[in-house]
Design goal:
5-stranded parallel β-sheet; DsrE/DsrF/TusD sulfur relay family protein; Hypothetical Protein Ychn, Chain: A; DsrEFH-like; about 35% helix; alpha/beta
Length: about 120
C-alpha cells in the first residue's frame, strides 16, 4: 500500500508536523507500506539537518531520517524552500528538493493521503 503524508505546519510551535511524522514513522516500519512524505510551506523546516533543540524536545530531522531509513521518500517543496531561503545542502540526507508536479504524481499514485 502506498501512503502519502502531507505536512504544512512549521516544525515547532504546533504539534501537527510532529504528529504527522510520528504516524509516518510508524507506518514506514510496516513491510506492506511504501511511505512518501511531502513538506509544503513552513513544514520544509522539518527537513533541516542537525537541528538544535532543548533537551527533552523532539527532533523532527531525526524523525524524517527514520522514515528514510525504512525506505520512505521525503519531498520538500522547492518554491517553499526558496521563499524561506533554504538551500538544498541544509536538508537531511535522503530528503530532496521537489516540485508541485512530483507532489501531484505522488498524490495520484497513493492509495491513501493523510494531511497535517
Amino acid at each position: 500500500m502506498k501512503i502519502l503524508v502531507v505536512l504544512n505546519d512549521p516544525p515547532y510551535g504546533t504539534e501537527r508536523s510532529y504528529n504527522g511524522l510520528r504516524l509516518a514513522g510508524a507506518l514506514s516500519r510496516r513491510e506492506e507500506v511504501e511511505m512518501q512524505v511531502f513538506l509544503f510551506g513552513d513544514a520544509v523546516g522539518c527537513a533541516i539537518r542537525d537541528q538544535k533543540v532543548p533537551d527533552g524536545y523532539y527532533h523532527l530531522d531525526r524523525m524524517l531520517t527514520t522514515v528514510i531509513r525504512h525506505g520512505g521518500q521525503i519531498g520538500c517543496c522547492g518554491t517553499c524552500m526558496d521563499a524561506r531561503g533554504l538551500a538544498d545542502d541544509l536538508l537531511v540526507d535522503g530528503a530532496h528538493r521537489s516540485t508541485l508536479e512530483e507532489a501531484a504524481d505522488w498524490t495520484v499514485m497513493a492509495d491513501k493521503v493523510v494531511t497535517f
